[in-house]
């Protein structure tokens, strides 16, 4: 059998298999691709799961860099600088907040979502403000932030979003019953 006919036979088997599945099975088998945001912006490799412990998020550029690129930068003597944008790191909360707010002012969806996280947790000197966090996540979700969609979904799931005001519902499309 030639390569082309072998491929078409394989495709026919796959499409028959797909058709045989129930809508439920098709739904549960879809959407498992890793999002583009899970790629390191330096080496373009997917960051190992779970993403958090295998990477570092830098607020200067809102980029998540993989451990491999952090190690490579360290070996090149690039200490104390963001591996992606080379901004000096800071431990000062006010400076970190200013960096985030600068990107928020430019409409960066990830920065807006991240500021929502900080408001929710009361970090970087902010007062804990769940309502403000939901406002920010709603804005970020409308701009396409996956993290913000996740946070809003979680808020609905745990009933921390007021169902009376329906806050954030437009951003996540529909509301669970
Ligand atoms: Zn990398
Ligand atoms: Zn940076």
TrEMBL record:
Any idea what this protein is called? Answer: RING-type domain-containing protein
Q: Which InterPro entries match?
A: Sel1-like (IPR006597), TPR-like_helical_dom_sf (IPR011990)
Q: Where is this region: Disordered?
A: 1-35
For this protein, the record's SMART domains field holds:
SEL1
**UniProt biased composition (Low complexity):** 1-22
């Amino acid at each position: 059998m030639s390569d082309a006919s072998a491929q078409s036979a394989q495709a026919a088997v796959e499409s028959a298999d797909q058709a045989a599945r129930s809508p439920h099975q098709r739904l549960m088998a879809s959407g498992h691709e890793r999002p583009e945001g899970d790629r390191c912006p330096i080496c373009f490799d997917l960051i190992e799961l779970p993403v958090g412990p295998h990477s570092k998020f830098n607020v200067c550029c809102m980029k998540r860099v993989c451990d491999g690129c952090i190690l490579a930068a360290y070996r090149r003597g690039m200490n104390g600088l963001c591996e992606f944008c080379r901004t000096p790191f800071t431990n000062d909360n006010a400076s970190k907040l200013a960096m985030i707010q600068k990107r928020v002012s430019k409409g960066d969806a990830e920065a807006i979502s991240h500021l929502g996280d900080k408001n929710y947790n009361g970090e970087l000197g902010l007062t804990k403000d769940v309502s403000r966090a939901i406002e920010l996540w709603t804005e970020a979700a409308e701009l396409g932030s996956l993290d913000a969609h996740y946070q809003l979904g979680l808020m609905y799931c745990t009933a921390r979003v007021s169902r009376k005001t329906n806050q954030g519902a437009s951003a996540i499309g529909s509301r669970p019953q």
